[in-house]
Write a structure and sequence with these properties.
The protein is α/β, with parallel strands linked by helices and 343 residues long. Helix content is 40%, strand content 15%. It has one domain (3-332): TIM Barrel, CATH 3.20.20.
């Protein structure tokens, strides 16, 4: 398993990690993703460690905390052998202070995650989203306090816009406190918005990208074909999941799948393996979170590493998935001498 530095930090992480959104299966959204129990989770952790993928990602709101609890049980007795990342900020209750990145909520959220995970420290703690109602100085000072207390090793964020992330990095520098070394972001062959602003920012500021949903919200599994019904077991069968995820046209999806089919045939790999490998080839990407309902899916996804796409294959996938850039990025593209591409 390849390890990469996480942003500008000295921390190295495996290029693949296992996401735990499939653990628990509580609520309409997470039930559509999976319902892995403790015994199944232990087996998935065993398989990951067999491959050297020793990083596991969770969040306090996954299945109302059950995902963290199950992960905690699955890694019990081998905490020193694994890297644990989790997230907070999103609602975990009905109260006014059960959401957000205030000192009040984050303190409760982090302590609760530590208890559920059964650990004294979290290797990477990320804000699940930006809280525009709380001063970034309050949020960052709170996280820095947990770093200084030894309860968090590194901090990151998720689903931030460019200005959200840059404002936070500037505040950390001004205050001389811990800065975000990671940004967990949606990025896939059918979701390339990340490239316009967040990728250049990550490269310039030394922020490592941790990618979620590299298979485009379940669309690049290799099981979706034109004129065929959706697989019976798919998050795309769930209204709650569809409403929560990105929306793309069928024509665009099928164009990308056709290109993936060609490369999969050339490489002897599966469509999801090619899709994940493409994401890993992109600038700033340190880690890709893979999900799995079962051991077979996990082993398939772990097979996305240990080999490389050729430049020609990458170019063909780039061309099939390219979409018009939003302003001002289409305008900036006319002046590559001022805005050189990231390589």
């Amino acid at each position: 398993m390849e390890f990469r530095r996480l942003g500008a930090s000295g921390f190295k992480v495996p290029v693949l990690s296992l996401g735990t959104a499939t653990f628990g299966g509580k609520g309409d959204l997470f039930k559509a993703w999976g319902s892995t129990d403790v015994s199944e989770a232990k087996r998935l952790v065993d398989v990951c460690l067999e491959f050297g993928a020793n990083m596991f990602d969770s969040a306090d709101m996954y299945s109302n905390g059950a995902a963290e609890e199950i992960l905690g049980q699955a890694i019990k007795g081998r905490r020193d052998s694994v890297i644990v990342s989790t997230k907070g900020t999103f609602p975990v209750g009905p109260g006014a202070n059960d959401v957000g990145s205030s000192r009040y909520h984050l303190t409760k959220a982090i302590e609760a995650s530590l208890r559920r995970l059964g650990t004294d420290y979290i290797d990477l703690y990320q804000l699940h989203g930006f809280d525009a109602t709380t001063p970034v100085e309050e949020t960052l000072a709170t996280l820095d306090g947990f770093v200084r207390a030894g309860k968090i090793r590194y901090i990151g964020c998720s689903n931030f816009s460019g200005w959200h992330l840059m404002k936070s990095l500037a505040a950390s520098e001004r205050l001389g406190i811990s800065r975000y070394v990671a940004h967990q972001a949606y990025y896939s062959l059918v979701g390339r918005d990340f490239e316009s602003e967040l990728m250049p920012l990550a490269a310039d500021q030394g922020v490592g990208t941790v990618v979620w949903s590299p298979l485009g919200w379940g669309r690049l599994t290799g099981k979706i074909r034109p004129g065929q019904p959706l697989p019976s077991v798919s998050r795309l069968q769930s209204k709650a999941s569809n409403d929560a995820g990105p929306h793309i046209s069928d024509d665009y999806l099928y164009k990308v799948i056709a290109a993936l089919d060609v490369v999969a045939k050339e490489t002897g790999k599966t469509v999801p393996q090619v899709a994940i490998n493409w994401v890993l080839s992109r600038p700033t990407v340190a880690n890709v979170i893979i999900g799995a309902r079962n051991e077979e899916q996990l082993r398939q996804n772990l097979g996305a590493v240990g080999w490389q796409l050729t430049p020609a294959q990458i170019a063909s996938l780039d061309a099939a998935s390219e979409l018009p850039k939003p302003y001002p990025y289409w305008h900036q593209a006319h002046f590559p001498q001022l805005n050189p591409p990231i390589v």
